[in-house]
Queue: 3 jobs
Job 1
Amino acid sequence: MRLHHLAVLVIGLAAAASTHAAINSGIDGKKPVQVDVKLSINEQLALVETAIGTEHYSEIGEADRMAVRDALGRIRAHVGGNPSADGLSPDIRTAVFNDQELVNNIMTRAHADSRMVCERVRLTGSNRREQACMTVAQKRDLKDNSQDILRTWNRWNMRRPGD
């Protein structure tokens, strides 16, 4: 009988450790943090709230940050004291899954935009290369702003005198 209890304890601890490791693996920056309501919801919601403040999600906008917090609040309100969404009514479960998808989409996009990219570039007037690092979102903004400036410059310089 003791051997049976010991085996159950060991299996329970192994399952808890693997769940804890799976939850914490998302915050290391290699993969985006995702909410899976089939696992322990309260731990996952805490993980998302912690991850939003890390450098891996530095490019998340204020509107997206508020949308994530609102969705997490709705999930928390719908789930209540339940450890998962399995015992909820179909309507509430659908609302929880919709909020889960919203959080996952925003977190995935913010994680991809916050990735740091470094490249060796030549500065104007120099043959020496220097390393320039910026996030994907910063690089995209720089490209878009440069194109807008060039379009505006071309528009003003294509005018004839007296127009």
Job 2
Amino acid sequence: MLKVVGTIFLKDNKLLIDKPRTKPTHQMIGGKVEEKETPLQAAIRECYEELGPKAIFDESKFEQVMDFDEIATSDPNLKIHFYVFKYNGSLEGTLETSEEIESFLWYDTSIKEDILSNTLKHKVIPYCIENNLIK
């Protein structure tokens, strides 16, 4: 089973998500857990890779808030185990797009759900609403 991580970054009751160039939907900041890497190490590495070199965050402020099994949005035959971390601080600096990331979006529930990955739609957004993290 493939292990995957995602990180919840919040600002003004909105959740930071990104749009990969190769996928049709927005997703969490995150990606695959590499061999010999813990989920926390993977979450931190993915944040550096996806947010760009000018994003500033404190590695000690990551907290695992949930994990679950699901089927990958991109492949109905791929089972994944997803670890979700919440960043308990303010993301500082500047976000930069890359060859991998097309754009960033601060999401709230006024935006239609059809732009979201299944993980966001069915797990992360409900968690954020239930815990009064986003509006």
Job 3
Amino acid sequence: MALRHYGAVRRLHDVLAGPGFHLLLCGPVDAWDENVVAGLRRRFDGLVHAHRISAAPAADGLRDPDGAALRRLGARPTAQYLVRPDGHIGYRSAGNDLDAVQRRLTTWISGRATTVASP
């Protein structure tokens, strides 16, 4: 799946190749509370990388201008995927509630976090 990132074409596979967990937030740019996403990044410092995939341009997001990747990922209107370090999908869900993602991460990374809360 080809996406645009800061004007350059990026394949989703390449984005997910880096170490750690990758959280894909698929859908409208404003579907997730940025404070909650930032809190999750802080609690799992360096272990979780959140990536927004949207048809609309976003400052740090991955743009899917024709919506092909979003359709393939089932983002109707939103979806979230947690990709484990081994490249397999560890969790997927429709909607934008990050509580279940946080619980999964807490289970896998014991002792690193307790909750995801807005600051």
